[in-house]
Amino acid sequence: MEKRGIGKIALLLSLGDGDIESLQKYYENKNYIIYRGQAGSMDSKKIIAAIETAASREDIIRENYHEEHALYHAIIEALSGYCRGQVLLGEVLRSAGLTFTIVRGTLVEDEPSSGNWIAVVLYGQIGSPRRGFEHEAIGMGIQPI
Amino acid sequence: MEKRGIGKIALLLSLGDGDIESLQKYYENKNYIIYRGQAGSMDSKKIIAAIETAASREDIIRENYHEEHALYHAIIEALSGYCRGQVLLGEVLRSAGLTFTIVRGTLVEDEPSSGNWIAVVLYGQIGSPRRGFEHEAIGMGIQPI
Amino acid sequence: MEKRGIGKIALLLSLGDGDIESLQKYYENKNYIIYRGQAGSMDSKKIIAAIETAASREDIIRENYHEEHALYHAIIEALSGYCRGQVLLGEVLRSAGLTFTIVRGTLVEDEPSSGNWIAVVLYGQIGSPRRGFEHEAIGMGIQPI
Amino acid sequence: MEKRGIGKIALLLSLGDGDIESLQKYYENKNYIIYRGQAGSMDSKKIIAAIETAASREDIIRENYHEEHALYHAIIEALSGYCRGQVLLGEVLRSAGLTFTIVRGTLVEDEPSSGNWIAVVLYGQIGSPRRGFEHEAIGMGIQPI
Amino acid sequence: MEKRGIGKIALLLSLGDGDIESLQKYYENKNYIIYRGQAGSMDSKKIIAAIETAASREDIIRENYHEEHALYHAIIEALSGYCRGQVLLGEVLRSAGLTFTIVRGTLVEDEPSSGNWIAVVLYGQIGSPRRGFEHEAIGMGIQPI
Amino acid sequence: MEKRGIGKIALLLSLGDGDIESLQKYYENKNYIIYRGQAGSMDSKKIIAAIETAASREDIIRENYHEEHALYHAIIEALSGYCRGQVLLGEVLRSAGLTFTIVRGTLVEDEPSSGNWIAVVLYGQIGSPRRGFEHEAIGMGIQPI
Asked: So what's the ipTM on this one?
């Protein structure tokens, strides 16, 4: 099997399809730190805060600005991809309900020389605040840490 | 098993992980039209052209402006997510090498009332034109058709 | 006389110059659905909501996601043109007072083969919240429906 | 009749609907300087250059940086509205064929105290380089001069 | 010594390094109008309002739309540079604490023919609302007035 | 004297005002790595390439993707600030002639615990390709490394 990149690991976990628990275990045994959570809001800063809080609480990043900066930029890139351009939700009358996945480890599995990186994937629904008037969206940000 | 959305179908196919051929067959039997191809360039318009050409050649869209417009907007949204903001590659000295996946069918599997949509997913590498100086990226656009 | 496009029809109605009632009648007799309303706010989502509400109430779009999606994207494109870039009003301390025009019908008059489209035009004033410190702006979005 | 703003004057002239020559004369007699031209390209800088060249040749702006700056920003704002976001044409595989209208005069007709402004309106078609696969677009920029 | 541009004058004053009072005096004697103030917020419109209020109160601009428009655009360009792209603070969970400097005068010192311009420089910190989790940022906008 | 941040160090060096050589020496003795160069083009990728080449040649970054990624993002942020929004030069018929300054060291002088960062500052002229029709611009990007 081809070696997976940190992005593909985070994406497979985000899609939550198939035996996710085994997949997560498999990569935790390879020293990846992994967390999956949920967030939903018309307020983009609440989604950002939910991810930052989870990352701190789960010790995915250490309490220094260097690492917080890497996480923040990965989140903003993921959100920018999710929104496909301007990072706006409620301001343009739309809402997001999503699963976020944070993965920290080497850029490519089994390649320690590829260095430590952090990947954030957002996968879920985006649309008007009315149920059923929404479609799927995805976004991913990857930063060195 | 939960019903999958057209986005998840396109994403799973894009990641090319596991038994993709079976998955593609499975959804083709459910009347989804699916195509996977590859494109790589520093020139964003070449990537767009490769996807448009494939969609026409494979009869995923009919030769009318209505459908071409839906495809075009799905591509641009996917590219915007892939680039995380400004749709620029060579202009900012970066290059993309990616798999594109086009899926046409109902927004949610086995829900004819959800209507016909087209999803475009781009998954691959983005980075400097030097090999190894790149990381993964993803983008998805979904439009009614 | 040259056949008008759906955009020009919406633009002429927006400018509200000359005999608008006759013009609207003329195109309603050609099966265009037309609505003109007003909205003003520093809050972009209120402007979007006003247009969406009018479109539903006036039966310009049917209650399904397919059509709502087309309308939404037409509104956002119009607002993006009106704002000339980032879709921000109050966040950058400016306000908009505008007439919105929604037109649904064929892309080109008397050409049924051009398909059904929806055009949204915003025309009015943009500027600081102080009266007289504002100038005109326009934006138009056109989507297949 | 309500006093028209410089934007509405430029918009009516752009749409080229009705007796444009009379309208242009009417406003030239009120000391507005007006020019209408055509440009078409996949290359945004060629469209910008065509407008700048016309403005200089027709003495709409004087040869100083102050006025050139005002014109340039009005063009970029108009182009941004026309493109509805990112000022990109060929880079995202689309083309524009348009009429540009430049109007210089008071912000509101018959109100000398409203000061001198310049308005640029772009109205035409945008779409794929294939004929018939395009729809209308509009953009307007207004700057003090 | 090389003649300084209005931008460099504003930048040197913003950095607040060395004998700022003398520098300010020196340029005030050359007929530059200068003001330095402070603003801090997660709310971008409060920063804009603080600068506009200061400019009016200190008579840097006259009470007409022409000049207010020039100031506003200079502020937005400065803020756009400070934010490096989208003009968003709290919406993306970040905060700014900054010194703003407004300078009005000729584009180049001792060159009256270069005309009157206004420069706005923002220099300070940007980052998460937590102390110490922030780094420096700068932005400058220059407009004819 | 207040401790300077890496941004202010890079900004003061960029402005090239006063005794720059002494300032550079002073910070080199404090273990900052500093380089100043020049670039001018209508082609944004040439400016990016000039900075990347200088950084490699002068050993400011090591030859690994981790560090190259940090440098690249610092450059793009600086360029985004310089352009005040979209990172476009020739595409919108404008040109840049600038001094770039790269500084690597602690985020705050004499505070080793603030970690290693890289700052890129661009300062120069932006405008139409005609001499004298240009004004100053600045942009800065700061990234952990």
From this structure: 0.96
